[in-house]
């Protein structure tokens, strides 16, 4: 069957519109898949960074506790007396400015 004239042009334009619509549907589907993939990747990165943040916070707390222990007055006096052979001065040995 052969169709001539305006009917053929209308049929061709409908086919073209259908093809364009299908291409748009396929492009949208690919966009959805890509977006979902990127969301999963970013969620995994956020989880990884959260774990790292918790580890850094724990390390910071441990280091602050260690600093407090090492800078305690009793510890400093122990090191001064034991390793450096220092003694507390008597009142007579004190120098007043």
Account of the 3D structure:
With about 100 residues, the protein is mainly α. The chain has a domain at about 55-80. It has two helices and no strands. The longest helix is centred in the middle third of the chain and has 65 residues, at about 5-70. The protein is rod-shaped. The termini are far apart. About 0% of the residues are buried. The model has no long low-confidence stretch (mean pLDDT about 90).
For this entry, give a set of tags:
2 helices; 97 residues; mainly alpha
Short description:
This protein is mostly helical.
Binned strand content: under 5%
Structural category is: mainly alpha
Average predicted local confidence, pLDDT: 88
Overall strand count: 0
Could you name the ranges where pLDDT drops below 50 across 5 or more consecutive residues?
none
Largest sheet report: none
General shape: rod-shaped
Radius of gyration, rounded?
39 Å
List the total number of helices.
Answer: 2
Query: Percent helix among the residues?
Result: over 70%
Straight-line distance between termini: 119 Å
Spell the H/E element sequence.
HH
What is the element layout, followed by pairings?
Layout: H1 6-70, H2 73-82
């Amino acid at each position: 069957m052969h169709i001539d004239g305006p009917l053929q042009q209308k049929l061709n334009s409908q086919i073209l519109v259908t093809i364009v619509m299908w291409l748009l549907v396929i492009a949208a589907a690919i966009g959805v898949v890509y977006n979902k993939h990127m969301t999963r990747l970013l969620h995994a990165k956020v989880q990884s960074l959260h774990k790292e943040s918790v580890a850094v916070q724990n390390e910071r707390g441990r280091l602050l506790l260690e600093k407090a222990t090492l800078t305690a007055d009793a510890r400093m006096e122990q090191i001064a007396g034991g390793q450096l052979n220092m003694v507390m001065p008597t009142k007579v040995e004190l120098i007043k400015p």
